[in-house]
Amino acid sequence: MEAIKAADFNPKFRDEVAELLKGYDFSNCLACGMCTAGCPYSDIHENQDPRKFLRKVLLGMKDAVYADPYIWYCTMCERCTIECPMNVNIAALVRSLRGTWDKDKIPGYLQTIANEHIESGNQMNVSQEDYEETLEWIEEELQEELGDPNYKIPLNKKGAKYFYGFNARDIKYYPNELQTTLKLFYVAGIDYTISTKRWDATNIALFTGQTDDFLAISMPLWQEVADLECEELIVTECGHAFRSMRWGYRTYWKGKQYPIRHILELLNELVKEGKIKLDPDAITEVVTYHDPCNTARKEGVYEAPRELLRSFVKNFVDMNPNGKMNYCCGAGGGGMAMPEFNEIRKAKGKRKVDQVVATGAEIVVVPCHNCMDQFNDLNKWYPEKAKSPNIHMCSLMERALIMPEKE
């Protein structure tokens, strides 16, 4: 073990980090190791010890901190913080340090995604023409599926109760997913709108820590909700989109105030109100539910999805641990966009695979696009996981949906 030299300490580094954090106190660390015990991956691969990383920061080992791959290995899931008796938020520390990186040196294609989002208005760099054509295609498909030739997607509707913000993957790769969601909205008869101006609720700068990029990406969407005078912002099944919208709104938005809710909170409410009816005999498989870290641990949404599932799934089996204590899927913190760390991501994912297999699940509900990509990779990497397909909640609900009789 290499000796730590006092000559390597930079007494000013702690002050620099404190200035970056602006309100998160990281100096209360007791060096007890509870963060390392709480991290699901501290024993999976090297350079994944939050206690050691934090000690380097506190000792002023600036060069060692910036050379430590932990900065980019950390999934920023905050499970270490849950266990910390002093509530030291290491994820916030990691994000702040990432934010000091030169943008052209950020790993993978994280910065490329941010740049394209700023330029095009969405993380998949979808052109305006392609976006509007995809919405037209979804509208035509729903007219036929619903047997309603007059069906229209409510675009740019001023004063709508709900503004729906979603993930650009639903336009570029999975338009059927957006179609399914809009079908549920149609059956429920809710008053909502989709903007043709700003619609992508994701923000990759949540992971890079670059505040200027974060604001350039999210601020226009918050403004669009205000400009359309909508009562509430509903965010799709995407953990980092939901976290970006809510945390960023609390931290930076100073305009008109409105609530921001996860779509599963809204859907659970609509089912309880009887506006969406689901057949309790339609889903016969054993189903489990994955808690995205950004949705459950960071934003506290984990009871509503389970209440929703239990309302129409007979064989629901929870993972252990679950809720705010659940394990990250292994691809958080921008992991999916850093292919040079794929082997690290694969190794982390095995812990989630073991969780799923232990439930005996035949279906895994994965309410997050980023987690979904990781889960689909896990199905390729691990034969035992391939036995349980992954699905979004809206898609599972569609299987059980009882369509209202036409008048």
Automatic annotation (TrEMBL):
Any idea where the 4Fe-4S ferredoxin-type domain is? 19-49
The domain of life for this entry's organism is Bacteria
Q: What is this protein called?
A: Fe-S oxidoreductase
Cross-referenced Pfam families, in alphabetical order? CCG (PF02754), Fer4_17 (PF13534)
Spell out the molecular function terms from Gene Ontology: 4 iron, 4 sulfur cluster binding; metal ion binding; oxidoreductase activity
User: Could you confirm whether the keyword Cell membrane appears in this record?
Assistant: no
Q: Which InterPro entries match?
A: 4Fe4S_Fe-S-bd, 4Fe4S_Fe_S_CS, Cys_rich_dom, Helical_ferredxn
Q: Which PANTHER family match?
A: FUMARATE REDUCTASE IRON-SULFUR SUBUNIT, HETERODISULFIDE REDUCTASE
Q: Which UniProt keywords apply?
A: 4Fe-4S, Electron transport, Iron, Iron-sulfur, Metal-binding, Transport
Tell me the organism. Desulfallas thermosapovorans DSM 6562
